[in-house]
């Protein structure tokens, strides 16, 4: 389904299949960018677990602040490389994976503190090593869960050919919905277009139309503008998605 300058209605099942392919491209981009970041984040988690070995004092505080700063820096570099910002899980599986990772890292950090208090600092290195392995598996698992959650809502196209109005703008909103923001050129690639076919300008046209309705916010602070759904845009998309599924279900009942 090509992005066009005018929005035509399209059958719901066709729109869902197209959006599913868009989100597969998004998931592939996310997973391709994540391995190096996952390893770096895991190393930072292991260092956080190891910090109590320094004891109580200024060096511990400095080390803790440095590791947290490194985590923030890694996240910023990851977002720059990805061309997207992702702040929240995309579904219950990635929520569970993220929560489990946080609990394990926190538990190992508390264990490390207890070992430091009772004078068993030698065991902290083993705890930190375990944290490195568990964190890497956890971060990798979260990335996989997030990618799967991004695709899952559109993995099964509703049966029936009822038309969905403004199908192209629905498609743009569907690509933005699981993200905090995305560069317009990256969004165009997610929608299956290349920079050399002049399609990003058409995507921007759709974004501008959605912005006029208060559904999209476009940041034009630099040469690479970024777009995000507003709260109204998220509510509107979720409502249209639910209505489309209900309509298709009623038509096949």
What is the CA–CA distance across the termini?
27 Å
Outline the low-pLDDT stretches.
Answer: 1-6, 196-200
> Structural class, from helix and strand content?
alpha+beta
Query: Oligomeric state of the chains?
Result: single chain
Overall tally of domains: 2
Helix amount, in percent? Answer: 55-70%
Radius of gyration in whole Å, from Cα? 22 Å
Number of strands: 6
Largest sheet composition: 4 strands, antiparallel
Overall body shape: elongated
Question: SSE order, as H and E?
Answer: EHHEHHEHEHHEEH
Note the beta-strand portion. Answer: 5-15%
Could you report the average pLDDT, rounded to the nearest whole number?
Answer: 78
For the biggest β-sheet, the strand order reads 2-4-6-5
Walk me through this protein's architecture.
There is one protein chain. About 70% of the residues lie in helices and about 5% in strands. With about 250 residues, it is an alpha+beta fold. The protein has two domains: about 10-155, no CATH class; about 165-250, Arc Repressor Mutant, subunit A. Helix 1 packs parallel to helix 3, helix 1 (about 10-50) packs parallel to helix 5 and helix 6 (about 185-190) crosses helix 7. The protein is built from eight helices and six strands; from the N terminus they run βααβααβαβααββα. The model is unreliable at about 1-5 and about 195-200 (pLDDT under 50). The protein has a four-stranded antiparallel β-sheet with strand order 2-4-6-5. A two-stranded antiparallel ribbon has the order 1-3. The chain has helices at about 10-50, 60-80, 90-115, 120-150, 165-175, 185-190, 200-210, 230-250, and strands spanning about 10, 85, 165, 180-185, 215-220, 225-230.
